[in-house]
Hints:
By secondary structure, the protein is mostly helical. It has 5 helices and no strands. It has helices at residues 2-6, 14-34, 41-49, 55-66, 70-102. It is elongated. The protein starts with a helix and ends in a 5-residue tail after the last helix. 21% of the residues are buried.
Amino acid sequence: xxxxxxxPLAVKNKIMVNILSxxxxxxxxxxxxxxxxxxxxxxxxxxxxxxxxxGVPLTNSIRDxxxxxxxxxxxxxIDAVLVACCIALGVGIVLSAFQMLTGITLx
Length: 107
């Protein structure tokens, strides 16, 4: 869904795609929470960003380390950590903006 919404923008940068995707998912979670579709905001945010997490690249990096391919393992690990940091940044931006605009702390 996020890729369909971001396709017209033609964002080719992986960092921006991850930040915008997690921000969009978090904003939708905040919106649904305030329309009373949920009881626990932290569970809504966690459940919505889990599909964005880099599980396969992290597993592949560990596999590369165990196979002795340290350079490839390091590169894949850096990529997985960068994606995770971008997701955290997107979530943090939306939650901070919501708190600054309304004064309500969600998490």
